[in-house]
Structure formats: structure tokens, C-alpha cells
Amino acid sequence: MANTMEEFEALLNESFEMDTPDEGTVVKGKVIAIEAGQAIIDVGYKMEGRVELKEFANPGEAPEIAVGDEVEVFLRSAENARGEAVISREMARREEAWDRLEKAYAAEERVEGAIFGRVKGGFTVDLGGAVAFLPGSQVDVRPVRDAGPLMGLKQPFQILKMDRRRGNIVVSRRAILEESRAEQRAEVIGNLAEGQTVDGVVKNITEYGAFVDLGGVDGLLHVTDMAWRRVNHPSEILTIGETIKVQVIKINKETHRISLGMKQLQEDPWDIVAAKYPLDSVHTGRVTNITDYGSFVELEPGVEGLVHVSEMSWTKKNVHPGKIVSTSQEVEVMVLEIDGAKRRVSLGLKQTQRNPWEVFAEQFPVGTEVEGDVKNITEFGLFIGLEGDIDGMVHLSDLTWEGRGEDVIGDYQKGDTVQAVVTEVDVEKERISLSVKALGGDKFAEAVGGVSRGAVVTVEVTSIEDGGIEVTYEGMKAFIRRSDLSRDRAEQRPERFSVGDKVDARVTNMDAKTRRLGLSIKAREIAEEKEAVEQYGSSDSGASLGDILGAALKSDD
């Protein structure tokens, strides 16, 4: 009997050991009832526990549990105050999940999960029982503005870091996308060849070009390859989402960069430029761009020429091109030079109008009178505005016959209207010389026109001075010095003359520059004497000078 009792006790203990699981482990149990939002689970050996139904649900889904289901739960303690086992489905799932995830992490395998919450710096992901952190930067290849559509979706993740002790898991969705993208890229790139024409969708537009999706791989269409003409901004030609035909220009096998072109599918207008725009031909174009050094004129789409600042205007020098033309203006230009290699056309704007200096020379030949306003006054003369928007210059020396130009330039002011005579037009140097003093003609030249040096002229005495007498000849003033009044010293007295006397004098000098006539009575007397001597014998033939002069005078009479 005693034996039987011992055996029974041993059996009983054995069954206790068998059926009483250790606290802190995962045990199997059976759902025996569901009530008040809880599942009652029998975990064996008369032990029951309760688990909230929501512990059986995946985030955002309804719990899937029914009476009779076998489930694994975590036994926290064998008995609580109510005499029930304290169990947790969530902790069981977590333990189970950690084991599974550690294996996947070691094998570098992907794991499945669902994003269910937003936290600072990222999101929370349920990996089937374990909660992981998904940093914001690891959600997608490009920054995600709205992660709403990704919430609750079952999708693969890559584990980046795990720490069981701290309960830390960091995952990435981006790593998987990049991997599949790289595979996809490699496949797409493998099917592309340089020179091939493909369809693509404009995905993004920047200052310098557009990114075009060629079906899983992006190519860059640079702004300079969009059209043969100048494109200021890609948005002038393209819109996001538009499907376009492009040519593959270059594929970089290492970086997987693809360069695309649109203009390569159109005819290059430069192929016919030289034939279409011969040198010196005139065409109408549109101003597309203005810079400090000139303006660009489009002759046709894709063909642009530069009008250098020096070729813009005959008269407006050192002026910004923007003061002469404006953007989008239609202008007439002449082709000056074509460089096919550099794809450059040099154009001229001023060549389509006549040279204003040539026109002036035709309309106003030397000697013509002109009128204009004083534009500028400098230390060497006046600048006068003339027809055709050009200037002529009156030099100081051309301002007056009497006195110095420096003395009379002060009489002029900017804006004064001045009349002058054209004295020279130099078309090459773009210079016009004018003279104010020549307006009434040259009175001195007119007065002494028929007179040469050595001639004897009759002058009228206008004033008696100490040093001599003042006389006039044909309206021009002259002065005979005291020493020139007679060859006889005793007769060199000015007072011997009276105002109004007519006197003969010999011209000793004519200076057109100083406008002076040099006169001498003494020279006339000496010349007459010399002549008489030559005519009537020499002074040493015995005849006196008085006899010779007397004879000469007689013959004159």
C-alpha cells in the first residue's frame, strides 16, 4: 500500500513537472471561451488565463481568433490574486518575432512588416510582433511628403540594426527600393543604345534641363540639347508629365548616367546657313538677348547672330546696346561674317543704313553754309550738332578774323544756334571741320586778291600817330611806321600828312595768317630811284641825281 502511495506521489509530481510550465516562457494553449473582449485560454494543468482580443490583431485589422484555436502565449506568472495564470499573446509574439528576425538579420534577408505609426524622426513598423523604427530618410529614394498611402501596407523591409537587450530594431524601405531600382535600371540600360530614339516622360524640370523617365531609369535632357535655337528656360518647351521623343546621346556604363537630346531628331539649320545667308545680304531678325558687348538677333529658329556693340550705330558710340534696341524688336541686319565651325554669325545693324558722313558730304559740300546748336564747348573749339545726328567742330582759329579765338569762345554757350561754313569732311575719320569766320567770305583775301609783293598801291590816311600813320586799302587797315614814311630822315614826320590824304606806298609784305599788309613809302621812293638810274644812265656818268630824276619825271609827263 505504502508502495502504491509513493508511486502515486511520484506520478503526481511527474505530472506537475510535466504540465506546469516555467514562468517567463512561451507555452501552447487552447481558446476555451471568448467573452467581454477577452479570450480565455487553457494553458494546461488546470491553468487558465485571459488575453485582450486586440493582442490577436495586426495593426489596423480585426482580431482573428475563435474558440478551439491553438495559440502560443507568454506565461508571465502561474497565478495572480484571482487564481488565474497571467499570460500575454503580445509578448509571445514578440519573443517569437525576435527569434525569427535575428535569423533574418544574420542571413541579410528581407522581413515583412507594416508601417503603423508616426514618431519623431520617422515611423513605427510592426514586424509581426516586434516594433521597429523606420527613419524618415529610409522611407523612399526621394523625400516623401505624405506617407499616408504607405500606412498599414504589408511590405518588405531590410533590417539595418538590432539590439535585443535594448529592444531596438532599425529598418529601411529605401534599401529595397534602391536594390530593385538598380536591377531595373541595369535591365533598362542594357536595352538602350547610343543613337537610339525612345519615348520618355518628363519627370522634373530644372534651370539647366529636364529629367526624363525612360521606364524605370532617368535620363538628363540638357537645355542646350532641347532645340537648335536658344532656350532660356526648359519650361518654355516642356511640361511635367508630357511624353516626348528623345535620342540617347551618351550612356555612361559606370555611373549609369544617360544623356538625352531632342534637337538631334530635327534638321540642323546650320547645314544650310552659308547658302541661305550670304555675306553682305540684309535680313530681318528678332532681338533675343542684349548684353554689354552687343545684342543677339535670331534670323530663324536655331540661327542666331551677334551684332557687336561697334556695329550697332554710326553715331551712338560708347552707348549700351539696350539704349539702341530692345528685346523682341524686329530689326534689319547685314551678314558680315559666318563661322560654320563655331556656329557664329556676325551681323551689322549700322550697315543697313548709309554712313551719315557720306550723306553729309553729298548734301553739304565744302563751302556750304550750315546751321546747328552748340553741343559742347572745349578748350580747342566748339562742337556743333548737324543733320544726321553727327557733330562738326569749329576750331578756335576758325572763330574770328580779328584777334584770338580764345578771347571770343567765351561768347558762346551750349544750345546757341550757330551758322558756319563747311571747310572739310573726312568720311574715314568721321570728322567735319567748320568755320564761323569764313561766313562772310575772306575780306582780306578779297581786298588783296590782285595785289602782289612789290606792287605800289594808293592808300588813304585815316589817322596820324606818333609812331607813323594808319591807312586803309580797299577797307583793310594797315600801318606805315615812321621809319617807312620817307627815305629822307628829315621827311619822316607823321605830321606832314593829314587824314584823308591819298598816298602811294609799296607792298613789302602780305601775311594772310595775321591778315597784315606791310606798306612803305620809303621803299617806293628807293625803287623809283633805282628804276630811274637804270633807265637814264648810272650815277657815276657825270650826271647828277637831280638831272636823272628830272629827266625821268619829264618823260613821265
Automatic annotation (TrEMBL):
<dbReference type="InterPro" id="IPR000110">
    <property type="entry name" value="Ribosomal_bS1"/>
</dbReference>
<dbReference type="Pfam" id="PF00575">
    <property type="entry name" value="S1"/>
</dbReference>
<dbReference type="GO" id="GO:0006412">
    <property type="term" value="P:translation"/>
</dbReference>
<comment type="similarity">
    <text>Belongs to the bacterial ribosomal protein bS1 family.</text>
</comment>
<feature type="domain" description="S1 motif">
    <location>
        <begin position="195"/>
        <end position="263"/>
    </location>
</feature>
<feature type="domain" description="S1 motif">
    <location>
        <begin position="367"/>
        <end position="437"/>
    </location>
</feature>
<feature type="domain" description="S1 motif">
    <location>
        <begin position="454"/>
        <end position="522"/>
    </location>
</feature>
<dbReference type="GO" id="GO:0003735">
    <property type="term" value="F:structural constituent of ribosome"/>
</dbReference>
<dbReference type="GO" id="GO:0003729">
    <property type="term" value="F:mRNA binding"/>
</dbReference>
<keyword id="KW-0677">Repeat</keyword>
<feature type="domain" description="S1 motif">
    <location>
        <begin position="24"/>
        <end position="90"/>
    </location>
</feature>
<dbReference type="InterPro" id="IPR035104">
    <property type="entry name" value="Ribosomal_protein_S1-like"/>
</dbReference>
<feature type="domain" description="S1 motif">
    <location>
        <begin position="280"/>
        <end position="350"/>
    </location>
</feature>
<keyword id="KW-0694">RNA-binding</keyword>
<keyword id="KW-0687">Ribonucleoprotein</keyword>
<keyword id="KW-0689">Ribosomal protein</keyword>
<protein>
    <recommendedName>
        <fullName>30S ribosomal protein S1</fullName>
    </recommendedName>
</protein>
<comment type="function">
    <text>Binds mRNA; thus facilitating recognition of the initiation point. It is needed to translate mRNA with a short Shine-Dalgarno (SD) purine-rich sequence.</text>
</comment>
<dbReference type="InterPro" id="IPR050437">
    <property type="entry name" value="Ribos_protein_bS1-like"/>
</dbReference>
<dbReference type="InterPro" id="IPR003029">
    <property type="entry name" value="S1_domain"/>
</dbReference>
<feature type="domain" description="S1 motif">
    <location>
        <begin position="108"/>
        <end position="174"/>
    </location>
</feature>
<dbReference type="InterPro" id="IPR012340">
    <property type="entry name" value="NA-bd_OB-fold"/>
</dbReference>
<dbReference type="GO" id="GO:0022627">
    <property type="term" value="C:cytosolic small ribosomal subunit"/>
</dbReference>
